[in-house]
Amino acid sequence: MSNFEVLNKTGTARQALLSTPSGAVKTPVFMPIATVGSVKTLLAEEVKSIGAQIILSNTYHLLLRPGPELLRQVGGIKRLMNWQGPMLTDSGGYQVFSLARLNKIEEQGVTFNSHIDGRSLQITPEISMDVQAAIGADIMMQFDDVAAGVSTRERYEEAMLRSLRWAERSKAAQRDKNAQSSIFGIIQGGTHEDLRDRSLEGLVNIGFDGYAIGGLSVGESRADTFRIAKHVASLMPADKPRYFMGGGMPEEIVYYVSVGIDMFDCVLPTRNARHGQLFVWAGEPAICVKEAFSRAQEGAADFRIAEALYTKIQITNEEFTSDLGVIDAHNDVVSSQTYTRAYLRHLFKAGEILGLRLATLQNLRFYMRMMEELRKLIVDS
Question: Which domains are delineated in the chain?
Fold first, then answer.
């Protein structure tokens, strides 16, 4: 079970301490993605060294391989990957959305055709909880139904109501599987405030250790995402952690923190890095974050928050061929202050794995430093 204590506030932004069986987490916090038990290209020790407090792994992918039987045998994915810290697991519900061409949704659960070998398998709330327990999650997520961001109101309502029914089953199954872990409920309802309100009310009546905003950043406009996030955050229980699932860009996270959300995850820092796209500080990090946060509190447009924070560069562009400037003079990870942009571009062009590692360290440390500065801002305000 988790324990959550809000320590500091400025406006609606919060700084808190989330205690888990594997250690405490200072929020607001960003969770690097370790989908199959690996933050791509990095050792677990490196992920810890750049400031990650908690990571996220995925139930669907770990169900496929190595499978729950082996995970139980070896003591969970954290033991396999040598991660010394808390872990949250996505329930597999997102794959209902992202792998829609491979699945069939029914009341009992979702039947998938594996994207690896085509074999048929099923995830139900009960199976999801069983796999998350085998993984060794400190925080489990309920199994939910995610509607695409361009869905009809009818589809949003259907997914929301089904997610509530699955929430009850998830909690009952989680209680049977691992009483030491926590379980979060997931608020659905698409871009409709009234559906979100009904979802949150239903989840609070069931009772969870934390609450997540799901079903956003799945195709809807950013204006709708911001509107719904702010509305839902204002109604979420003040004494429980608030988690925005899958969001996102740095400017989005700064905005979500400003409206009172505590936890975040996204593939962007690692995925973008592997494609040579870097988040480079616009200046001294503390000053950048302070200005971006101020703009977010004032309700500035997302691009105005972004421009205060970072410049996005494509390191494979020709302009960096002979650029002997360091990757990012303001990023305090050693590799970004040691290696040049010309060298990093060369590594990408030569197909060298070291290039992926250097870019990943740059982007993930950018996100970790951003969260550190946000926590300091809230504490000092």
Answer: 3-265 (3.20.20.105), 274-380 (no CATH)
Q: How confident is the model at residue 218 (pLDDT cuts 50, 70, 90)?
A: confident
The pLDDT-based confidence of 178 (bands split at 50, 70, 90) is: low
- What per-residue confidence (pLDDT) applies to 181? 93
Identify the active-site residue in 130, 265, 302, 328. 265
CA pair distance 132, 145, nearest whole angstrom? 17
Is the pLDDT confidence value at 100 over 60? no
**380 is annotated as an active-site residue:** no
SS3 annotation, 13-50: EEEEEEEECCEEEEECEEECECCCCCCCCCCHHHHHHC
- Decide if 90 is catalytic: yes
For residue 192, with 0-12 CB atoms within 10 Å meaning exposed, 13-18 middle and 19 or more buried, which class applies?
middle
CA distance 97 to 108: 17
